[in-house]
Every structure is written in structure tokens, then in C-alpha cells.
Amino acid sequence: MGKIRTITSVLAASALALTLVSCSEDKPSPQDAAESLAKGIAARDVAGLSFADTDPANVGTELEEILAGLGDVEPDVTVAGVQEDGDDAATARLSYAWDFDRDETADWTYETTAPLERADDDSWQTRWEPAVLFTGLSDDQRLVRTSEPAARADILGAGDEALVTQRGVFRAGIDKTKVDAAAQAASAAALATLLELDPAAYTASVEAAGPEAFVEAITLRAEEEPDLPERVAGIPGAVALPATMALAPTRTFARALLGSVGEATAELIEESDGVLAAGDQAGLSGLQQQYDAQLRGTDGITVMVMDAAGEVSSEAFTSAPKPGTPLKTSLDARLQALAESVLEDEPSASAIVALRPSTGEILTVANGPGSEGQQTALLGQYPPGSTFKIATSLALLRQGSTPDSVLSCPAELMVDGRKFNNAGSYPAAFVGDIPLRDAFAQSCNTAFISTRDAVPQEALAAAAADLGIGVEQPIGTEAFFGSVPETAEGTNHAASMIGQGELLASPLAMAVAAASVGKGERVAPVLVTAAAADSAATAETGTSPSASAAPEPEPEPAEAADPGSLTAAEATSLRELMRGVVTEGGAAMLLDVPGEPVLAKTGTAEFGSETPPRTHAWVVALQGDLAVAVFVAEGELGSTSGGPLMKAFLDGAAG
What we know:
With 655 residues, the chain is an alpha+beta fold. The chain folds into three domains: 23-139, NTF2-like, domain 1 (Nuclear Transport Factor 2, Chain: A), CATH 3.10.450; 155-250 and 300-325, Alpha-Beta Complex (Penicillin-binding protein 2a (Domain 2)), CATH 3.90.1310; 333-543 and 568-654, DD-peptidase/beta-lactamase superfamily (Beta-lactamase, 3-Layer(aba) Sandwich), CATH 3.40.710. Strands 6, 7, 8, 9, 14 and 21 form a six-stranded mixed beta sheet that branches. A five-stranded antiparallel beta sheet has the order 16-15-24-23-22, with helices on both faces. The longest helix has 25 residues, at 2-26.
């Protein structure tokens, strides 16, 4: 009986102990309160918390007032430790980390303390004071952030020559503090008239602006308008303020490629996840936008303690701006300017792409004014016409042909009911059985189509690929390298033999093909030679990185694509054929170009449903270590529309 009572007592005591432990574990702790406080401050939402002697709504209002000047950045707040100061009091240490530039690395870190008290219901409350946010902060003070823009980096070309750099400008406008209100409208209209702007629209902008505003009308290059300050000085309130902007040598210089810099748009600000704000300068297009994070750098930041009157009490944090990292490209400034001058009078879309076969460096990406800002040179998609006969000839060489192999060149040829013929200017002396070298030099369409049974579409596509046509390769920005169907029958296959049908190419693709012939293996082109890793990766997909992307270390050079199976012997034969186009064929205008002998191929591609059809004009050329493609969207023959442009470019390049 005694043993039973003893066991019962032990069990009862054990149960009581378990109950006490359970109650202790369920009891609120100062650690829990500190964790909740940290989460609430980080989210700027303390509605669910408990405070001693004040309401959460009041704390929330004060929290927002103190932090409003820091923008919408939310700090990372964690509990660094909790010290119990007795049964009813504790002190929490809070660790703050502010990442103002959203680059995943904290810019400003510090610790504060928060006093905690036990309430009557055993819960823990925070005794709120501004110093919980920043040590020493008093009731009438707040935190305000200002930023100092970083110096935007240059875009460099060959030899590290600055293509885009800070250049002098004048910001012309009306300073409303320098003219009576009654005269502001007249001054605005006079300035707009002087600058050849819309007087009514600009006057409305001036009238809508604040009484102390400077209302900009236009920004002009200082080197183009050196006397602008004197010209506007006679208009009351009109000024031309000197400034600098990231600009290329001229307004048109590689504009579609390089892009522009200006005030960040609402869309860019939204996509930047807080990195950009209204009034910030950012890349708006082209390489400037694609590599904006690298070029923009990191703004300097100052966080000030400011009182209710707007007086600065102290600086809580400061960091110096970090300038952007230059973007290096292979663009040759002289040749780019030359190419653009050659195209300046061409009314239709046009392009000149030049590259160096030995290295693949792209030297020019020029678009004529008829391209209307579009990237014809890199992204144009057009049938390449007879310039594609370089690939067709390669396929024939692989079937055992030589430049002396005889082909049949009839005046016209029927394939499945469709008539193919030669250009209207085709010389009658070269109709009939002629060697491949003459068929290539004179560009006999029917001769190449006659060989379609010996060259299946798959072999044609393979030959094109070994020249770089249709092979995607990373150049540092979006580009189209062409499209050659691997299967085609009947008239589609026949048209493919002469660069028509479903074939498409860009001027870049045809320049790469010519360069591959010059080098003797498929050339891997490159434009951006050093860039941020994230941007270089996205260039392969043709998408632009977010404006919030942070600068990264320069990547290792990309591994070159498989150079294909073009052999030295095949390249030698193709160069022989291309030289014949200059000495005996449609590119005779290139015979007297100074320097090394020029090799070329002209091309004309029909498009549209009109009768007669409209035509694209093409010419590709090789001269020493220079490969060039010229394209004119609304041309005649390659020789008549493209030939003179090619000659002008090669003459200029030589001289």
C-alpha cells in the first residue's frame, strides 16, 4: 500500500513539473517582442504591435514621418541580441542594413537599442522613441537622404577612343525669376521662334511651371551653337546654361547602336526596382540602355539628421559616388563616320557593315538616314540575292566542281512552272555553257539553279553555316545572322540557289560570310569587347537587362563558336571567284581602288508583288584584312546601286 502511494505521489509531481514547463514555454518573451518589432519596422507597418503609453497608430505615423526622406527603400532589420534587465524590463539590440542602390549589398549599417517592458498581462511592449530608428534621434528630427550622381562612363571604340563621352551643351530656356510675370509669355514665344520650336506649346509650358522655375526649351551642342548665349541674351529671361551630356561625336554617329541618355522614363523607373527615380539620367536606347548599370555607376549617398525647420543637425551616413565602368567596343570611329557619310544621300533604308577577318572585330555598323533610326545593319532581314552565290559556290566545290567546271547558263529556266531568268543587263556573250568562274563573275542565275539536283538544300544550308550565315553568335548586343532553311523543294529550292525564296540575311551576316572567305574559316564576329557579365549574357538572347542590374566584373572572353569546316583550299577557290567579279564582272568599278586587290560579289534580290518587282541591292567585298557589306533596300542592281557606295567606302578607307 505504501509503495502504491509513493508511486502516485511521484507521478503527480512529474505531471505538475511538466505543466509548469509548458506554461513557461507558452509565456511571451522579450525575444519574441523584439523579433516582431524588427519585422514591423522593416515593413514600416507596426499596427499589430504593442507599445507602452502610446498607440500603434501614433508610432506608425511617426515612423513614416521620420523615414519619408529616405524614399521607399525598406531596411533589413534583425535582432542582434536581447538583454533582460530584470523580471519586467529588457533591452533589444536592433541591427539595421539599408541597401539604397538595390545591389544586394548593404550601403549603411548600424545598431540601435529598444527598451522593452512587461505589461500586466505578461506580454512585452516597446517603449517607443525615435532613437529606436537611429541612435540620438529626437522627437522633432527626421532622416533625409540626398544623392550625388556618379560620373557616367564612356563608350569606347577601337584603340579605346572615346565614342560617347561628356561633351559641352547649352540648355536654352526661360528663367522665370529673371523676367516679370506679365512678360513671360512674350519671352517664351520669342525664344521658341528663335530656336524654331512651337511657340504656343513652349509658352504653355512656361505658363504652367512654378514662379521660380527654369523651363528648358532645348539642349544644343555647344560646338554646333557656340554663340547661343549671345543669341538668346536679348530676350528677357532667356538664358543658355552651359552643361555636359554623354554624347557621340555627332547627332547621327552610330545612333541606332549606341543609343541615347536622358531623363529616366516612367517605365524605366518602374522596372528598376527603386534604383532609378524621377529626374535621374539613364540609358534610353541602344547600348546605353543595355549596359546602363555598368555605365551609370553608383550614386553617392548622404543621410542627414534634419529638424522640423529643415535645418541639418548632423550627417548620419555618407558614401562617395562610384563612377561607371567604360564599355569597350571594336567600332572604328573614322570608318564609322566614313560609312555614314557614304550613305547620307541614300533615301531608302541602307547599311554598311565592315569587320576585320583576322579578329572578327566589327569596325562599322552604319545605317543610312532612310533607315529612320532602325538597326538595318545588325537586325535587317532581307533576301541576300546573288551575294549568297558565295555559299552556293562553296556547296558546288564540295560536290567536286572547280572554278573551271562547265555549267549550263540558258537565257531562262522553267522549274515546276515558274520561270527564272537573268538580270536584264546580263551579257549575251555569257549565255550557254560557261565555266563556274564566269557564271559567278557575271552572276548567271540560271547556271546556279541548273545545279540544284547536285546541291540538295541541306548541303546548301551547311555551306552557308560554314560561312557564318544562319549561325547565331554573341557579339554583345542583339543581331540577326540570317536564316537558311535546311529543307526546301521545287521552286523554293531553286530560288535558294540564288539567295531568294525563304532565305534571309542581315548586312552583318553577309559581311561575316565575306570575312570568312578572307580568313579561310568561319569568323566569330565581336562588337562589345568588354562588358558587364550580366549584360553580355543577355546579349546572346537578344533581351535587355533590367535597369537595376548592378555592375559586375568583366567576364572571361567568350569561347569562340565552332569555326566550321571551311577549308583553306575552298577559301582559295572562293577568293579566286570573287576576284573575277572585279576583273571580269559587275564590280569593275572596284578595280582601281587603292591598296591591295579587291574581291567582291554583287547581288540583286527581288521582293514584293509588283511587276516588275522591286529590288534590294547588295555588294560584299574583301580587301586585305577588311570585309565589307553594302545594302540598299530600294536599289536597282547590286552593281549600279551598291557598287558606287562600296567604291566610295573603300576609297575613303584607303586614304
